[in-house]
Amino acid sequence: MPNPPTIRSYTPDDLEALAALRLGHAPSPTEGGALARWLAQPNIDAKRDCMLAFNDDGAPAGFAILIREPAIRRGVVEVNGSNQHRGGGAGDALLWEVYERGRAAGLDVVQVDVPESDEARRKAFAERGWAHIRTHLHLRREGTERTNVPAPDGMTLRLAEPVDAPAVTDVQNTAFTGSWGYAPNTPAEIAYRIFELPDLRPDPVVLLEEDGALVGYCWCHREAEDAPGIVGMVGVLPGRQGKGLGRAVTGAGMDALLELGSPSLEITVDSENPPAIRVYESLGFVLDWRSFWYELRLT
Predict the structure, then answer these.
(1) CATH 3.40.630.30 fits 144-262, yes or no
(2) pLDDT category of residue 3 using cuts at 50, 70 and 90
(3) Please, are residues 102 and 66 in contact by the beta-carbon 8 Å criterion?
(4) If DSSP codes are grouped into helix, strand and coil, which group holds residue 10?
(5) Taking the domain 6-107, which CATH number applies?
(6) CB neighbours (10 Å) of residue 178?
(7) If you compute the radius of gyration of the chain from its CA atoms, what whole number of angstroms results?
(8) Of 76, 16, 43, whose CA–CA distance to 193 is shortest?
């Protein structure tokens, strides 16, 4: 019987091995650089939050990343192993390490997002005591037809600049604090994710303003020139919601992606948010696939 895998914390020398495990192939310099930037986010301590499993022969057998959100006492987990070593005990060893580190950090829960189609992983988490607690809908819009949704009367639309990071942070935290799974951000985190993290920098973030004050935003992203454009977070100040501002800024974000050459568009929405689903459907999005969030309580 093989010995259990050895688990240790990430070091910068592990970058190529970690990238290969995440991607399923040897990383290109561009892919390695993208992972290095991802690990350098202000809210991540790679040595603390990333762990790797190794077999007796020193071969990498898997990895886990625990993104800590202390403000809401939650951790978000990414865990996987290489194709050659799946089922060799690395997954269980890594999940136990996640459990121990999460408890030590004072977290109440750890959660993981699994595609509905990945029945093997869904079964594995369920058998280990993780409960399905939420469903996300992944919507898609084909084609490059612009929405041409006009800006509301008296309001203007423009793309974010580095100086806007504090205002975007304020609106985002105001709009989403208390929503399921949302942990408040800092201006440093927002600025890094918009202007430093993407391969195609910066992310197009459309701002909706009234008299120079930020009212709402649509944060978009492109993985590659020929990949679908991603409509990410859409936030409107609570006192201004329900007046069509979200639809207007979402349409502007979609048009910004299409103008940059995105061949199609994608967006993810909580299945328990019918108003948002209706807005996205009115803009041409249809259901593509689902993912299930699983949770393990640590307390």
Answers:
(1) yes
(2) confident
(3) yes
(4) coil
(5) 3.40.630.30
(6) 8
(7) 20
(8) 43
